Amino acid sequence: MATVTKWPGSPAAGRLDLAPMTTDRHEDELAATPAGGRSTRQKRALALVVDETRDFRSAQELHEALRARGERVGLTTVYNQLRALAETGLLDTLRSSDGETLYRRCGSEGHHHHLLCRSCGRTVEVAGLAIERWAEKVAAEAGFVDVSHTIEVVGTCSTCAAAT
Q1: pLDDT tens column, 67-88
Q2: Which of 37, 54, 77, 78 is the most exposed place for a label (fewest CB within 10 A)?
Q3: Strands across the sheet containing 57-58
């Protein structure tokens, strides 16, 4: 399954795309505290904003979207909840070109990677058995066990390549 979105910093970034992602999960799952705590008004509000946003967004952008709706949610609460949701796999994360962590509702159930267009910011979720085997092999050769990894492939999509 491939899910396409725009990457912040791209020409399309800055707009809030409100079409919900296709997923079996719903905002109640995001609003529940990943560690098992209670669902609060602030968490439900954040879950709604995340569910309505297709693009990867920074914690500050999500916080600003909450404020624009009149929600009083602290930036620290936003950061903490986003981090916890990312750790449980409910949110995807990417690093922007300036090193900032960006978040988006995870569009795939399993472990996956991202292809990013450096020109327009298009993002495609991909699963790659060859990547998984390579990571396991490299780790084993170095004597590592219980390994996890994140791989983001940055390039130029065919549409942008054709336009140059």
Answers
A1: 999 999 999 999 999 998 888 8
A2: 37
A3: 57-58, 101-105, 91-95
Six-digit token pair at 14? 């800055």
Closest CA to 62 of 130, 16, 94, 98: 16
Predicted TM-score (pTM) of the model is 0.62
Task: Identify the structural domains of the chain with CATH numbers, from first to last.
Answer: 4-163 (1.10.10.10)
Give the CA distances from residue 100 to residues 28, 56, 97, 139, in Å, rounded to whole numbers and listed in that order: 27, 11, 7, 27
Contact 90, 105 (CB under 8 A): yes
Instruction: Give dist(CA 64, CA 45) in Å, integer.
Output: 12
Residues 156, 47 contacting (CB under 8 angstroms)? no
